[in-house]
Design goal:
The complex is a heterodimer. Chain A is mainly alpha-helical. In chain A, 75% of the residues lie in helices and 2% in strands. In chain A, strands 1-2 form a two-stranded antiparallel sheet. In chain A, α4 runs parallel beside α16 and α14 crosses α24. Helix content of chain B is 74%, strand content 3%. Chain B is globular. Classes of the chains: A mainly alpha, B mainly alpha. Chains A and B meet through β1, α6, α7 and α25 of A and α13, α15, α18, α19 and α21 of B.
């Protein structure tokens, strides 16, 4: 095994080793901060390894048998290192590292055993996410796909004693599992047709036009369903806002920067296969753009700072998917990377704010810029990046997506995405103005957090700027749209900011009045009700699934089992009745015999022959 | 002379039972130590068997034969192939864990352990016997002690029929442990009748000279014989495997049985049924299997979905787990019905995975019941804070149950799915996959209800698992994860048995 193999395996193995150590050695886990130190050390080492792999920049694949079978393995596991995986490796390890450091301060009030549990799950998550990124086959991707889903479930439910957290955790698991049903059926069908799960073989087949499987469109659609669940695309996006019940660093890592992008990563990875089915690609594009717009409207009416960011994540994931659907997966992937940086920054910044003021409600915050200037600066950097301002990182990636969608002649999605640019700037600056500016509520003395929380914020802010500058200088984003595109999108963003400023800073526009005028009133009404989707799912769950299960349970107990109980009850009853024949009185028996003889006589005389 | 290791594994618990009855009267600790020692011998034997089993050779290994009744062709004939190897290992693990999990049985613990160990000998015997007559004797030995174990040491549920049903079934005592014990025993004996008829039909049709599996395997029976005898085996063994609609003994039986007995019954005895269908049904009657695969697979799909939905409807924790067995046994039967290599491997893998998983579940439910004195899910809540170890193990079991990767349940389900889509009835894939979602709904719902949420003031005094109980939990969780991460551990030996089996089936 040479360095090109063992180095990625080591990057993968370090968080795993940390997980096993923390899971097995209970005293270490219960020590809390020591567990954190172990986990951070492991992820830091993995980060260095990832940077090394990325800077050398090789491409390598190695697989081993996982599920053996007589004629070649049914499934293999291994590592696939290529530019796509390299970039993800660095992003995942970097954000994990920063989030784990940040968590030490953010969760310092937790009981040590709980903190140990937190870091055990964090290590497991880092391992699972890296395993997903390095997957050389659909099956390994699915394995780690489910494992990151598990970590998400466990970490959303970190405060398991809270009923809302418990509910959000299972909701996230169920909704994503619904998409995963499609994923698993898809890869099973693909395996049955091609005898392999491996990307290399499948891509080779696709290249040789040898993948003319009947129903490939269906298969790829089913696989895409997995991404719909995981990357919170309409209509399965409902779990992500609820997932904000987890600790804020978890939201930053899992529900913004890494795990939720797994769906985008998968579609990008399997691009050669999706390219064979243009109908599915078009669907991906439309759904992505629609998701982006829909989530942005919900972000505009949300008052919980974390949920605004969650809807914004859904919206940005829609952008990435739209790019993949438009045949510009590299643009979507670039946005995945830049979004990972600035959205983690925004979440961690929001965490610092929540930590300082003790509430999630933006209408109960205000004037925080003076109290926590450092947090304010980095948060505004993140906001500008998200809104798509040059030369920050978000500008170039969003630009590339818009260009890609425009060039694919998808006018509908393009218009939706362009409108979303305006909305994005609006709802983000709404948060900024309400939180950091304006009048401060009287209570409390908020202040900037300790350096363990500040350092990750500054690192992410610096990277957001630096990556943006790098993109401005280099020619990385391959998609240059028409010349009017960049001015248009900057103008849209400026319009959004101006609107937010006029509404929430100057008070020129009354938000209530704005929301009451047509056509905003309709959108406002629907968005506040989350377009009825949560209600729909809850109704399906309670009204259909649970009722139906009760019906089946009743049938089982009273009909299927009832036949048996009926038989046994009547056997007992019948025996009880027949028992009386054996009365013990001789005359009864004589009557019986006489009656029998009579019957025989009658029968022998009159029975027709 | 070589050590007759199969006999050692099989009879060691029986020797333990005798020792307990004759030497350990009124010495509870001695009872437990004897039980640990004798099942430990079986465990070590099974591990040794597993280690030295030749994974490159097909056919039966560790063969033993002693003629018993030569004129009738009955002999004490033992041997294992890959399938029985894995199931012997499963039995050894479950009973070893079961001995620890029932450490706290106080009432008549001497008789309890003696019966339990006698029963285990029956189970081992079924898996290693190659003579159908001896096979049947062991089979009955495995079934009958259950009546006493449930009837004496069991617990009655709180659910009783209501309204008109209360009147209609008033004599049966539905819901009590006595009812459950009687129902289980009668039902399984009803199944045995079919098996006995089937065995004799084969014996007579093959010339009435031998009960040996190896001899009968060489005979090709007429298609009509194959069809009807396969059906008899399917129904007979299917009762024990919990096939719909003959499954209703299982929720009552498992819910009423004491901890170790439910572990053993749901974990291992249900596999006797599936094993019987695969070994005798498919092994001896290949064309019958091909002819009736559609029936097996379709009913298996009903099992999966119906069992999961029924589990969702339950309010009694033990019933939830019991119905989940009905659902998961569907995966076992479905994998076998696909008649493909992956499907059959998945079936055997699921026998193992479900055995360990449900053993773990029943051990945990036993612990929770013992501490909280309730099985009603609605009354529990917030146990995670007071019993984190049990909560963790329960979560692990749940995850394997819903087929999460890196647990044994995933491998089994994946292989079954792959087999289903390659079989002649592709649509089987959809109910099977839907079952995993339904499982996720009910297990996580139950886990949330019991372990999550605010800690209830009623249950502040509860304790986590202790001493011997940990042995059971750690052992089972480890096996579950180990086989999920390294599936080759099971598949390499199993493949040596499924391939020849399949070759015979496809030959027809």
């Amino acid at each position: 095994m040479d360095a090109t193999v063992w180095l990625p395996v080591l990057v993968l193995g370090l968080p795993f080793a940390s997980f096993v150590l923390l899971a097995v050695v209970a005293p270490l886990r219960r020590a809390g901060r020591a567990a954190g130190a172990v986990s951070i050390a492991a992820i830091a080492a993995a980060f260095l390894g990832a940077v090394l792999v990325w800077s050398v920049g090789f491409t390598r694949e190695a697989t081993w048998t996982w599920i053996p079978a007589d004629d070649g393995p049914t499934a293999t596991v291994g590592v696939l290192v290529d530019p796509l995986a390299n970039a993800m490796l660095v992003l995942v390890t970097l954000v994990s590292l920063l989030v784990q450091i940040y968590s030490l301060a953010y969760l310092h009030d937790e009981r040590p055993p709980s903190l140990g549990r937190y870091y055990t799950f964090q290590s497991l998550f880092a391992f699972s996410m890296l395993g997903l990124v390095l997957s050389p086959s659909f099956i390994q991707m699915f394995v780690f796909w489910e494992l990151v889903g598990l970590c998400s479930y466990l970490l959303i439910g970190y405060w398991y004693a809270r009923p809302t957290a418990a509910r959000a955790a299972v909701k996230a698991f169920w909704i994503t599992k619904l998409g995963d049903l499609g994923f698993v059926i898809g890869i099973v069908m693909l395996w049955a047709a091609t005898d392999t799960f491996e990307f290399r073989v499948l891509f080779a087949l696709a290249q040789e036009h040898a993948l003319a499987i009947e129903g490939l469109g269906t298969i790829m659609f089913l696989i895409y369903l997995g991404a719909v669940g995981k990357s919170a695309q309409f209509p399965l996006h409902v779990w992500l806002p609820d997932a904000m019940e987890g600790p804020t660093p978890v939201s930053a890592l899992i529900h913004a920067a890494t795990m939720v992008t797994a769906g985008v990563f998968m579609v990008t990875r399997a691009q050669p296969l999706f390219a064979l089915v243009p109908d599915v690609l078009a669907l991906i594009g439309w759904v992505g753009a629609f998701t982006a717009l829909l989530a942005a409207t919900m972000a505009c009416v949300e008052s919980d700072i974390k949920r605004v960011l969650a809807y914004s994540t859904v919206s940005q994931l829609g952008y990435m998917m739209a790019a993949a659907g438009a045949g510009a997966p590299d643009a979507g992937f670039l946005h995945l990377l830049t979004h990972g940086l600035f959205k983690a920054l925004l979440f961690l910044g929001a965490g610092a704010v929540i930590h300082a003021v003790g509430t999630n409600d933006i209408f109960r915050m205000g004037g925080l810029f003076r109290a926590m200037p450092q947090t304010g600066v980095v948060f505004i950097v993140g906001t500008l990046a998200l809104a798509g301002f040059p030369p920050l990182a978000g500008f170039f990636s969003k630009e590339a997506i818009l260009a890609g969608v425009w060039e694919a002649d998808m006018t509908g999605p393009f218009l939706m995405l362009a409108l979303t640019v305006l909305l994005t700037a609006f709802y983000m600056f709404r948060v900024v103005f309400l939180t950091f500016f304006g009048r401060a509520p009287a209570a409390g003395h908020p202040h900037d957090p300790s350096w363990t929380m500040r350092a990750p914020l500054w690192v992410l802010a610096a990277l957001t700027v630096l990556v943006g500058l790098r993109l401005a200088l280099g020619d990385v984003g391959a998609h240059h749209g028409p010349g009017w595109l960049a001015p248009l999108s900057v103008a849209a963003a400026l319009g959004g900011i101006a609107l937010a400023w006029a509404t929430y800073q100057r008070g020129v526009v009354d938000p209530g009045g704005l929301a009451a005028t047509f056509p905003f009133s309709v959108v406002d009404l629907l968005a506040r009700r989350r377009y009825g989707l949560d209600t729909l799912y809850a109704g399906l769950y309670r009204g259909f699934l649970l009722s139906f299960s009760r019906l089946i349970g009743w049938i089982d107990r009273y009909l299927v089992d009832g036949v048996l109980n009926f038989l046994s009850a009547w056997t007992l009853r019948g025996g009880d009745l027949l028992r009386h024949i054996q009365s013990g009185h001789a005359q009864d028996y004589v009557y019986g015999v006489a009656f029998g003889v009579l019957l025989l006589f009658v029968w022998s005389q009159w029975w027709p022959r | 002379m070589t050590v007759p290791v199969l006999s050692l594994i099989t009879w060691s618990p029986f020797a333990g039972a005798l020792l307990i009855m004759f030497t350990a009267r009124y010495r509870p600790l001695a009872v437990r130590l004897i039980a640990v020692a004798t099942t430990g011998v079986s465990m070590v034997g099974a591990l040794w068997l597993y280690a030295v089993y030749d994974r490159d050779a097909a056919g039966f290994q560790f063969y033993e034969k002693v003629p018993l009744v030569p004129p009738l062709g009955i002999s004490y004939e033992l041997g294992v192939d890959g399938i029985s190897l894995l199931l012997v290992l499963l039995t050894a693990v479950i009973i070893f864990a079961g001995v620890f999990a029932s450490w706290t049985v106080t009432v008549r613990s001497q008789e309890f352990y003696a019966l339990l160990l006698a029963l285990v000998t029956g189970v081992f015997g079924v898996f290693v016997a190659l003579d159908l007559f001896v096979f049947f004797l062991f089979y009955e030995l495995a079934v009958l002690p259950m009546y006493l174990l449930i009837g004496v040491w069991g617990s009655s549920g709180e659910i009783r029929p209501r309204g008109i049903f209360a009147w209609a079934y008033r004599e049966t005592g539905v819901g009590t442990k006595e009812y459950a014990a009687m129902k289980l025993t009668l039902y399984l004996l009803f199944g045995s009748a079919f098996i006995l008829v089937g065995i004799f039909a084969l014996y007579v049709n093959a010339g009435a000279s031998s009960f040996s599996f190896v001899d009968l395997e060489g005979v090709s029976f007429a298609p009509a014989v194959q069809r009807w005898v396969f059906l008899a085996f399917y129904v007979g063994f299917g009762v024990l495997a919990g096939i719909w609609p003959l499954h209703t003994w299982s929720p009552d039986g498992h819910a009423s049985a004491p901890t170790a007995v439910s572990m053993l019954h749901a974990g291992v005895l249900m596999k006797l049924g599936a094993y019987g269908v695969v070994r005798l049904g498919m092994g001896l009657l290949p064309s019958g299997a091909v002819e009736l695969a559609w029936l097996m697979g379709t009913i298996a799909c009903v099992n999966i979905v119906y069992g999961a939905l029924s589990a969702m409807a339950q309010t009694d924790l033990k019933y939830v787990i019991a119905y989940s067995s009905v659902s998961h046994m569907g995966i076992v039967m479905l994998g076998a019905a696909t008649l493909t290599e992956t499907g059959l491997n998945g079936s055997v893998f699921q026998m193992f995975a479900h055995g360990v998983m449900t053993g773990l579940f029943f051990a945990l439910v036993g612990l929770v019941y013992e501490k909280a004195h309730s099985r009603e899910i609605g009354k529990m809540g917030g146990f995670g804070a007071v019993m984190p170890g049990i909560a963790t193990a329960f979560t692990m079991g749940s995850l394997s149950s819903l087929g999460l990767p890196a647990t044994a349940g995933f491998i089994a389900e994946l292989l079954t799915f792959l087999g289903a889509w390659r079989s002649d009835h592709r649509w089987w894939l959809f109910p099977a996959v839907a079952g995993t979602f339904l499982t996720a709904v009910y297990v996580l719902r139950v886990a949330k209800q019991i372990f999550w949420g605010p800690p209830s003031p009623h249950f502040q005094h509860l304790e986590d698992a202790r001493g011997p109980e940990w042995v059971a939990l750690v052992l089972l969780v480890t096996v579950l994860v180990l086989f999920g991460m390294v599936p080759g551990l099971a598949i390499a030996p199993v493949d040596t048995a499924t391939l020849p089996l399949l070759a015979r089936i496809v030959g027809f």
